[in-house]
Amino acid sequence: MSGATTPAQTTEDDITSEVLQRIQGTPDPRTREIMLSLVTHLHAFVKDVRLTEAEWFEGITFLTDTGQKCNSVRQEFILLSDTLGVSMVVDLIGHRRPAGVTESTVFGPFHRDGAPELANGESMATTDFNGTRAVISGRVLNPSGTPIANALLDVWQANSDGLYDAQLPNHDTLRMRGKYRTDKDGRFVVVTSRPVAYEIPKDGPVGRMLAATNRQAWRPAHVHFVVAADGYEPVTTHLFDAADPRLKAGGDAVFGVKESLVVPFREHVAADTAAAKGAKVNGPFVSVEYDFVLKPVG
Amino acid sequence: MSGATTPAQTTEDDITSEVLQRIQGTPDPRTREIMLSLVTHLHAFVKDVRLTEAEWFEGITFLTDTGQKCNSVRQEFILLSDTLGVSMVVDLIGHRRPAGVTESTVFGPFHRDGAPELANGESMATTDFNGTRAVISGRVLNPSGTPIANALLDVWQANSDGLYDAQLPNHDTLRMRGKYRTDKDGRFVVVTSRPVAYEIPKDGPVGRMLAATNRQAWRPAHVHFVVAADGYEPVTTHLFDAADPRLKAGGDAVFGVKESLVVPFREHVAADTAAAKGAKVNGPFVSVEYDFVLKPVG
Q1: Alpha carbon distances (Å) from A92 to A251, B14, B71
Q2: Mutate to test the interface with B, among A26, A77, A105, A208 (most CBs of B within 10 A)
Q3: Which end of chain A has fewer beta carbons closer than 10 Å to its terminal beta carbon, N or C?
Q4: Which residue of B11, B20, B30, B53 is the best one to mutate when testing the A interface, meaning the one whose CB has the most A CBs within 10 A?
């Protein structure tokens, strides 16, 4: 046998050349660019470590298990991307924001569509009986400091046991989620529970990877936000509780912490009308003041 | 915020450094080596192509779909590895055989345990009514040419419609599979159907990838073998039908062809006792003579 299509494939580099040559026929230039780079790096990895057949099969099993662990309320491949730092690399490549604009961080695997629209001052934590109330208020601004009216804040977080609704029994029910809109002065008032640190799900392939690499699974306490307004780039981000010792003890399992997103949670031992910003909170609570700054489109 | 565990992660390279630093704590040295290389190449790929969030999400969806397509009779991640050339790179790294020893090729996603043990000359294609009979005979030898008695040949292939048993209705039934043992002279006689070229399964994520890269899905006609004997390295390989025009027209979708595995299938228009090697074949059939040469362990 001979001929261009069936060369004497005697080395692994011949295989790499042949794969790259066939991918050259990809019609879409961006798909071609991505596939050529993917195959180049994937083959280089296999060659660098001289991957054995047994290790290859372990990899096949790991990826298969990861896919099979996904369902309507769990996304194990996003969790894998997060824990390998890939999500944050994508985030940082895509969001070079000018100083002063709110920084982004990981989206995570727990966002769900369909959160209820709530009025400012209404609680999204009505099912979380054990949590300390938290009032997170502030404005959405453009980079010049002008308030943006009618901006949408899609907010979600784990409950005070460190579990998202998708991890609870009866997981079809949406909990600890709400959509808030800024008023004419760009103001919002989110009422929720004070977030707690939690471990990401460890009962799947990602947990096996973390155990094999001797890594901890904790995420420091945070609340998730996607803040969007017409004419501005939406920002996917968190606010972290500066008082959480896990910020320093071992870091974030998904590498999501940025200094500008770590904010003080002020503690109030009793009713404090000024801090409550009109929300109905009785007894001890915490408050956060934070202004989100969005970058105009284009 | 400051400190080693929560640096001001302002660039994607900071993330890569932080991930690599955490993986340094992996207790098993080989796992550490593999994980460090994997993260390095994975991050380099994302940075090289400046992967967007939308493209990242497309990748997450692709990998999830690939995992969910796997079941007891289908292994879409092996098919993905095969079609990206990864399986052949692993094969070539792992099997540097001296000249004269039978070369290996892809295992593929269609092997199944539990094939029936058949006597030499017995047919493994009794359910394949439309196929041309094929008698594949020869010896299993050591590199000096000494026959190896009681070697095991685990043989499987697609039927004459180009489908494996796992792709047929009632796919729990094993078909087109057999285990043969060499006699005291190292001889075997496999009776099967002449293999046909077929397209690998295109109804899943791998099919989407092949379509996006404008690649064909054909594999040239072949029979699968795993040949094993005590004291020798087993070989996972194919025999390809040299007469198949698909060997030259577009090549093998999984890059498995090696010159030494392409063999002539002799055509016999009527009964030919010498070529049949004692097997009961009536009318037209094809015959192949091939000696497998195994490398001693160590």
Answers
A1: 18, 10, 37
A2: A77
A3: C
A4: B53
Q: What is the ipTM of this complex?
A: 0.90
Domains of chain A: 12-69 (no CATH), 76-293 (2.60.130.10)
CB contact under 8 Å between B85 and A19, yes or no, is yes
Can you tell me the mean pLDDT for A1-5?
Answer: 38
Chain B nearest-CA distance from A205, in A, is 12
CB contact under 8 A, B81 and A56: yes
Which residues in B lie closer than 8 A to residue A37 (C-beta atoms)? Answer: 45, 48-49
Distance (Å) from the alpha carbon of B15 to chain A's nearest alpha carbon: 6
Model confidence pLDDT, tens digit, residues B252-283:
999 999 999 999 999 998 878 888 888 888 78
Which are the contacts of B11, defined by CB distance < 8 A and separation ≥ 6?
A92
Mutate to test the interface with B, among A6, A31, A50, A66 (most CBs of B within 10 A): A6
Q: Tell me the pLDDT band of A171, cut-offs 50, 70 and 90.
A: confident
Q: pTM for the full model?
A: 0.90
